[in-house]
Amino acid sequence: MKNKLNPKFIFSAIIVLVATISFAQVSVGAASDSTSTVSEQVKITEEISAFEFLMKGGFFLIPIGILLFYTIVVIVERVLFIRRMTQLNKNMLNQIKGDLSNGNIQGALNSISSDQTAYANVVREGVLTVGRPIAQIESNMEKVANIEIGKMEKNIGHLGLIAGIAPTLGFIGTISGVIKIFYMISITENVSIGNISGGSSSSYFKSTGLGKLNKSIANGVTQNFPIGNGAYNPVQVKNNTGSADEFSVRVLDEVYANGTSGTASIKDRVKRTWDISKATANGGSGVDFTFVWNGSSEESGTVSNPILNHYNGTT
């Protein structure tokens, strides 16, 4: 007797698999809104791993990933189990047929005992009821067949539940991302692609070395640089130079005497340095910067009137 999986469970598994694969300075200082040019550019491309790229999708990718892993485990385990339980041993059937023809029921049962497949369990029930009415034999064998099907479908029902949960988590994650986008737009009044695709306190480019985050900005356009070091300290750059230019940014977690090196300052300050450079000299009305930091970055209390310091190579 050949048993088949319920198509709705297979369809649920396919759905799951398809749905699932927020005092500073520029080149040293303390910060506020201002216009400035900066030092020479160091082009180092920052790369992220595939795992880091996936994690930028947000928290909801974690449960979705767990559900995907569980789905794969269930599918693989069920496929292997069903393949083993549905193997047909033709030699056993021929031997049983011979034993039954000779009236050797115990011999037939001994032949069946060596086979642990679903077919053997169904046939065993038939042999045990030999001599009873055909209808009763068929009924008993059908009951055993249903039991074997139940064993094969064990845990497959979970896939239907996952097929409903995973898209819901994906939808919630999408809505969460949209809310974050509109929040960023509301506080920056900037609808640029750089702002929309900007980072957050849990998702930003970390500048731990000389590498910088590079962006090409057209004239009149504002771009957000989602960058930081020990914390998320983004900067928005508005290009008013009259032509497109390439800007590069990194963040240091202190204010230094020589821009990005030397003795650390001991004055009241925002302990952040935004090292910003651009490809060409300023023109037009220059560049506007908007810096972001949190209270923990402020040394000796709250900075109420921050001043932007620009290191020009000597002071």
> First CA to last CA: what distance?
89 Å
Return residue spans where pLDDT drops below 50 for at least 5 consecutive residues.
1-5, 7-46
Q: Numbering strands along the chain, what is their spatial order in the largest sheet? A: 3-7-9-1-12
Helix share, percent = 40-55%
The secondary-structure class comes to alpha/beta
Strand content: 5-15%
Total E-strand runs: 12
What spatial form do the alpha-carbon principal axes imply?
rod-shaped
Give structural notes.
- The chain has 315 residues and is α/β, with parallel strands linked by helices.
- Helix content is 42%, strand content 15%.
- The protein has a 5-stranded mixed β-sheet with strand order 3-7-9-1-12, with no helix packed on it.
- The termini are far apart.
- 28% of the residues are buried.
Q: How does the SSE layout of this entry go?
A:
Blueprint: H1 7-20, E1 24-26, H2 50-55, H3 61-85, H4 90-101, H5 105-113, H6 118-128, H7 134-152, H8 156-188, H9 193-196, E2 205-206, E3 213-217, E4 222-225, E5 227-228, E6 235-239, E7 245-252, E8 269-270, E9 272-278, E10 287-291, E11 298-299, E12 309-310
Parallel strand pairs: 1-9, 1-12, 2-5
Antiparallel strand pairs: 3-7, 4-6, 6-10, 7-9, 8-11
Helix pairs in contact: 1-3, 1-8, 3-8, 4-5, 5-6, 6-7
